Amino acid sequence: MRRSCLPKCRVARIMGWIQIILGGLVILVSILSLTRFYYAGFFLHNEDICHHFYNVRDVYDGFDAKSLSDRVAKVIDRLETLQAKLESKVQEMEKSKITLLDKKFLEDQIVRPLHSANVALRQIRFSKIEEGRNSTVEEDTLINFFITEEIRKYITPKENRVGKINLYGVDKVYNTIGHACVLHKTELEKYMDYDIGSYCDDDWNLAQKLMLNGCDPLPRRRCLTRASKEYQKPHPINESLWRLPDKRNVRWGNYQCRNFECLSSKNPKRGYSKCTGCFEMDKEKVKWFSNSSLLRVDFLISDVLAIKQGEVRIGLDYGIGTGTFAARMREQNVTIVSTALNLGAPFSETIALRGLVPLYVTLNQRLPFFDNTMDLVHTTGFMDGWIDLLLLDFILYDWDRILRPGGLLWIDRFFCNKKDLDDYMYMFLQLRYKKHKWVISPKSNDEVYVSALLEKPPRAI
Ligand SMILES: *[C@@H]1O[C@H](CO)[C@@H](O)[C@H](O)[C@H]1NC(C)=O
Ligand SMILES: *[C@@H]1O[C@H](CO)[C@@H](O)[C@H](O)[C@H]1NC(C)=O
Ligand SMILES: *[C@@H]1O[C@H](CO)[C@@H](O)[C@H](O)[C@H]1NC(C)=O
Ligand SMILES: *[C@@H]1O[C@H](CO)[C@@H](O)[C@H](O)[C@H]1NC(C)=O
């Protein structure tokens, strides 16, 4: 046994030493080049030395020397820690005479961090951010509101190089954030606190919380998002539509559950309340497909599609769920994009793993579709009697905007208090759509369901 291992071990050992030596060299070179920066008096802002060190045209007036020096100091710190780790590991190996190198240790603790440190070094650019910017007072106010350098960099308009006009026909690009971000400064700064090029925290729930609170759109980040350690390839498309995904394809860290079985409606601690039971495929399979207990309120997909034979090809499902509506429609050769937020369960991941398209949007925003494009907007399980009438008005007009003339608006099981019914009916009918179906049915003593199938009229104006 031992004998047969020997040549292999020797190779691994030699490889390990080569890796260590290479790593050490990289660190040495990095530190040497940084020392040269300091030696040149760069951070003392000595103009002469700067001119000497760079070509004149490389020197910018508004150069952000402070953030550079902070950044560089961090990188040096990190390289030094790495070197110490490397050395102690080498000593340890010599003592215990371990023949086979712990490859995983080298990978995780040394090679990767070293790589990210190097990437970070490369990210130090001679930024033109502060120079010659033609911005309004309001922009500066917003930028200066934030202290975190990465947020400031993000929202600073990026002027095109050498005064060119880009394909949008504009001379600079604005990265936008939701205006309510200013109300959640601390959380946003936490969200944007990362090392450029390294792994982000597993903090999608912080991001979602910011979005739901109106910090939407969120800034982009320059860190690598984490994925499940044991990610498997998804089920093939002929199976994925009606099969729960592999639990290993989801990062469960921020949910109450740790697998799909736990999300069952029978479990009181499943962690979400809307669309109970939508992780049970046998329950999902009958939806919109066979007569339900709420016969009049639940329209069948076959009946709806029959109204516009062959004309419904693309659409939006505005709701919360696991994509079952889109799955059924896909079987009818209709492409549906499903909105999905991860409200207590991995809705987005589930939809995507079923082979359907999740659209991660909140109610806050104008929909990212052009006017008069969609054949169908279906909405269920999302809005009900809690929704502010003014908000609903803006949403309805947005749906109207994206629906094509002759497109269908399918309001599915909207419910509200009986006394509010008139208000909501007025809202739904104000756009003067053609009524294909319109059903009101009691839900409980003082609540009612409204389901409707409405058609957007042509507007030749
Ligand atoms: C700034 O913008 C204004 C109006 O957009 C323009 O007239 C002015 O020339 C610009 N200044 C610079 C320095 O680009
Ligand atoms: C799905 O397709 C694969 C190959 O394309 C096949 O091996 C498998 O049996 C199919 N599964 C089902 C449920 O039809
Ligand atoms: C659903 O019920 C209606 C009315 O009772 C009936 O006409 C229809 O055939 C049923 N459809 C299915 C798929 O069972
Ligand atoms: C969907 O398209 C496929 C391939 O074009 C076709 O075979 C199938 O009959 C269509 N299904 C429906 C429900 O129209």
Explain this structure to me?
The protein is α/β, with parallel strands linked by helices and 461 residues long. It folds into 3 domains: 2-122; 137-212, no CATH class; 237-455, Vaccinia Virus protein VP39 (Rossmann fold). It is 39% helix and 13% strand. The strands form 2 sheets. The protein has a 7-stranded mixed β-sheet. Strand 4, helix 13 and strand 5 form a beta-alpha-beta unit. Helix 1 runs antiparallel to helix 3 (65-96), helix 1 (2-39) runs parallel beside helix 4 and helix 14 packs parallel to helix 15 (421-429). It is globular. The relative contact order is 0.06. Mean pLDDT is 84; it is low at 37-60 and 125-131. The protein binds 2-acetamido-2-deoxy-beta-D-glucopyranose (4 copies). One 2-acetamido-2-deoxy-beta-D-glucopyranose (NAG) binds next to loops.
Quick overview:
This protein has 461 residues and is an alpha/beta fold.
User: Could you tell me how far the N terminus lies from the C terminus, measured between alpha carbons in angstroms?
Assistant: 85 Å
Low-confidence spans: pLDDT under 50, at least 5 residues?
37-60, 125-131
Mean pLDDT: 84
Would you give the CATH topology of the largest domain?
Rossmann fold
Q: Helical stretch count?
A: 15
What Rg do the Cα atoms give? Answer: 29 Å
In total, how many domains does the architecture comprise?
A: 3
Structural class: alpha/beta
- Spatial order of strands in the largest sheet: 5-4-3-6-7-9-8
Tell me, briefly, the overall form.
globular
CATH architect. name of the largest domain: 3-Layer(aba) Sandwich
